[in-house]
Write a structure and sequence with these properties.
- Two copies of one chain form a homodimer.
- Helix content of chain A is 24%, strand content 20%.
- The longest helix of chain A is centred in the first third of the chain and has 21 residues.
- With 285 residues, chain A is of the alpha/beta class.
- In chain A, 40% of the residues are buried.
Chain lengths: 285, 285
Amino acid sequence: MTPAQPDYFTEARSVEAVNGRIGHATDPRLAHVMQRLVAHLHAFIKDVALTQAEWEAAIGFLTRTGQMCDGNRQEFILLSDVLGVSMLVDAINNRRPAGATENTVLGPFHVEGAPEYPMGANITLAGGAETCLFEGRVTDLDGQPLEGVRIDVWSDNEDGFYDVQQPGVQPQHNNRGVFVTGPDGHYSFQGIKPVSYPIPADGPVGQLLARLGRHPWRPAHMHFIVTCAGFETVVTHTFVAGDDYLTSDAVFGVKETLVAACDQVAGGATKWRSRFDFVLNRVAG
Amino acid sequence: MTPAQPDYFTEARSVEAVNGRIGHATDPRLAHVMQRLVAHLHAFIKDVALTQAEWEAAIGFLTRTGQMCDGNRQEFILLSDVLGVSMLVDAINNRRPAGATENTVLGPFHVEGAPEYPMGANITLAGGAETCLFEGRVTDLDGQPLEGVRIDVWSDNEDGFYDVQQPGVQPQHNNRGVFVTGPDGHYSFQGIKPVSYPIPADGPVGQLLARLGRHPWRPAHMHFIVTCAGFETVVTHTFVAGDDYLTSDAVFGVKETLVAACDQVAGGATKWRSRFDFVLNRVAG
């Protein structure tokens, strides 16, 4: 583009000046995403009339966030989580009809290759006095049970840590397992009643939460990845009903439909019982 | 706030869910800026329907940008520059009446404590065959000359590098100096005709520019900070008229009013002559 007038940057035409520079050979999706990013980013700055000191604070915050990242810590994902961005991206990309089980965030603690167990097995290899039976059915939207569904589950231990956070303290694959449904679509396994835990709060994101008057806690939950050929994969949690943080999850992961009653069992093989049915949505086409 | 219904996160009410968490004791300006940030950020994500893969690419890009920063390199400022954010923040915070000299970005190469010289002195301590006389007047908006104006100037050398980029190669304070006007408001000094140079392009920001079909070059310019008691400080450049990159400055620093004719002088004490008058705006009150 060679404009008749050179397109110098002005406050009024800041977006056009920046977006006008994108080359014609640019990948169309990248060009579109960047053009909209510039438009929304400039709109934000104009909206709040960002000061020079606030801009400097933002540069410093982003720099510290990047420098907090290493092989075990992803502070930008935490930032995305606490701003509701991770959940929003998940929601946009996993819209389902009413009645189908909803997604929530994957979280950083999933591990490929957890052991496959027979239905009913115990995934708690160490600790966990508050034993809990998790059970339910997997069906399609018509209520027909689904066979051959792979159910990959994981949770924290009674101290709020996943096995991968405590190598050498917890046995490998503690509170993890994979189960496959039979013709009745039923699943069951024994674990512990999960407990609430805080996201890592000793970095820039934790400092931001503190300045915003927000706590870093997540309500207790069991993770599930439910996979079945011909159906959309569900990446989700079930949340322990009654948890103190259900309505204030630091990462906004809770959906009303994912809260599962967790009832105390008198004289049972486990102290608690959590029932949740999964409903899968058929892949289009 | 204790809503009658728990304010669970939904795609439709994502902004309200996140902003509803901010505590009542939060600094009001911080709360406002963060609320608007969340609103604009979520609007952007919904606008483009950001995919999971694009979100992952963004997390990776931000992480690499943070990890490129060290004591000598600020990749997040570069990112702000190439997205027009630095210029926009400068524009919002330095609105002036027509006729007053406009600001542009400070850039990373200003140094406090450059030597003060008498008017007419040469700031080029080494190199620079393309000598250039910079001169003009400093007045108020009524055209009255201003005395005691401090003019702090700096430029690159003929290879496109500032002294601080080449310690041991260029003498300290090469192409830097401070001048103070007398009663006539006149300034003059001898330097070199500045040359175009690229911003650092070997990091994530350079890769982004390449993918967007943009070059990393800045048009040739002389930096000025013009300070006078009772007047708004002007942080600006003058740009060499005719430069190839005037209408495509990688950081959007060019304003039409800042382009200064740079004329070849036949048989003069310098080969070039650049004239530019500064007009200062009185501080309100």
